[in-house]
Design goal:
Layout (H helix, E strand, L loop, with lengths): L3 E5 L4 H12 L3 E6 L5 H10 L7 E5 L11 H7 L4 E4 L10 H22 L2 E5 L7 H6 L12 H8 L1 H19 L4 E6 L1 E3 L12 H10 L6 E2 L8 E3 H12 L7 E5 L7 H12 L7 E2 L1 H8 L4 H5 L17 H10 L6 H15 L3
Parallel strand pairs: 1-2, 1-4, 2-3, 4-5, 5-6, 6-10, 7-9, 8-11
Helix pairs in contact: 1-2, 1-9, 4-7, 6-7, 8-14, 10-14
Bound molecules: NADP nicotinamide-adenine-dinucleotide phosphate.
The site of NADP nicotinamide-adenine-dinucleotide phosphate has 28 residues, from helix 1, helix 4 and strand 7.
Pfam family, one: NAD_binding_4
InterPro entries: FAR_NAD-bd, NAD(P)-bd_dom_sf, NAD(P)-dependent_oxidoreduct
Protein name: SDR family oxidoreductase
């Protein structure tokens, strides 16, 4: 069954692979672009990633604008899409509350409104920390009654990116419920490159971690032996997103895309260091101490490490029941993640090392 989709964030790392995955399965995809003149490059990239560029059409817009800033002709074009994927986000550390909210919260709400108006299913990408309920409580998020959360205080505690992703999650769910509109949320772990090619893009957290280790900036292991940074390959994530998008049992539900056997951070750093041919850090440093050090003038810039990124290194284990059910229903499985990580490291080394 071919379906027509609308994709916001299709030019990003996960978005490029999603477009490849959708079009390889014969689905037509309208992609929202802030710079539609770059459509030919995007099509070439989708072709390189195994998709069918002939099935992609671009519309000009920006999620932070009302109605995504779509012209009426484009609004009409995308109205035949029965699935709306939102992967658009300002994904960086050090965002101000205003900037993070304008794109990640108001923008996500604008995409949700379009989906609800079109009676299309919204597939939203959250993040695995939204399933770490202890962490949410610790940073002051009231998951049961999100309207009671003091959001500016949460932005102060964890920074603009993470806070806005959490706020947008609850805001969009509340909006979709009010509109009686369908949504499904996929929560990825930190995304690793493609399991065959290792393809990953500049600015991805894992690519930055590999570059920091290669350049000798990683002097110690943040946290204890129990700390880990869960990973998922971009190909598994895309397969999961496409599966849930057409699964009626997943309406108004959430699922994790996360490889629960990701080694602890020490093991992961050792594996990356081995592929790079550098020495892995040996000693652990408590995350609270590291955050304190990073607050000192110049330290974060010298180490090219943001305190915000450390929140994702944690000890929580997750309930994978729904993911496992979907894996068996759709014969999805994680690729060999040790190999996927190795290929990602090699990709970063040969393509993104400058
Ligand atoms: N990668 C991870 O490790 C990870 C883990 C958990 C969750 N996630 C979530 O997964 C989603 C996709 O992440 P990603 O890694 O693919 O991010 P990415 O590579 O940074 O891509 C972000 C995308 O958002 C678009 N965008 C940003 N601002 C926009 C605006 N105002 N209007 C329209 N489009 C806008 C960008 O378009 P331009 O090309 O115009 O800049 C780009 O297509 C995000 O929601 C992220 O929070 C990612």
């Amino acid at each position: 069954m071919d379906v027509e989709c609308f994709v916001a964030g299709g030019t990003g790392f996960v978005g490029q692979h999603l477009l490849a995955g959708l079009t390889a399965r014969g689905h037509k995809a309208w992609v929202l672009m802030r710079r539609p003149e770059a459509i030919e490059q995007l099509k070439e990239q989708v072709h390189r990633l195994g998709g069918d560029p002939a099935l992609i059409g671009a519309v000009h817009g920006d999620i932070s604008q009302e109605g995504l800033g779509l012209h009426s002709a484009d609004r009409l074009r995308v109205s035949s899409a029965s699935i709306v994927f939102n992967l658009a986000a300002q994904f960086s550390w050090g965002l101000t509350l205003e900037r993070a909210r304008a794109i990640n919260v108001q923008g996500a709400l604008n995409v949700a409104r379009l989906a609800a108006d079109m009676r299309s299913r919204l597939i939203m990408v959250g993040g695995f920390m939204l399933q770490n309920f202890e962490h949410l409580a610790a940073i002051g998020v009231d998951s049961q009654r999100p309207e009671n959360t003091d959001w500016p205080a949460v932005y102060d505690r964890v920074g603009g990116y993470e806070a806005s992703k959490i706020e947008s999650h609850f805001t969009v769910i509340s909006f979709m419920k009010q509109r009686c509109a369908d949504y499904t949320i996929v929560h990825p772990a930190t995304v690793c490159g493609h399991s065959c090619s290792g393809h990953i893009t500049r600015g991805q957290p894992l690519a930055d971690l590999v570059r920091n280790l290669a350049q000798g900036r990683f002097k110690a292991i943040p946290g204890s032996r129990r700390h880990w940074l869960p990973l998922v390959s971009v190909d598994y994530l895309v397969d999961m997103m496409i599966a849930v998008a057409v699964d009626h049992t997943m309406v108004n539900r959430e699922v994790l895309a996360l490889y629960e056997h990701t080694p602890n951070l020490q093991g992961m750093l050792e594996r990356i260091a081995q592929v790079l041919g550098v020495k892995a850090p040996q000693h652990h440093v408590p995350i609270t101490l590291l955050k304190w050090l990073l607050a000192l003038p110049g330290v974060a810039a010298r180490l090219t490490l943001s305190a915000e990124s450390l929140n994702f290194i944690q000890t929580q284990r997750f309930d994978m029941t729904i993911s496992r059910q979907l894996e068996s229903k759709y014969q999805l499985s994680h690729p060999d993640m040790s190999q996927a990580l190795e290929r990602t490291v090699r990709y970063v080394k040969s393509h993104l090392s400058d």
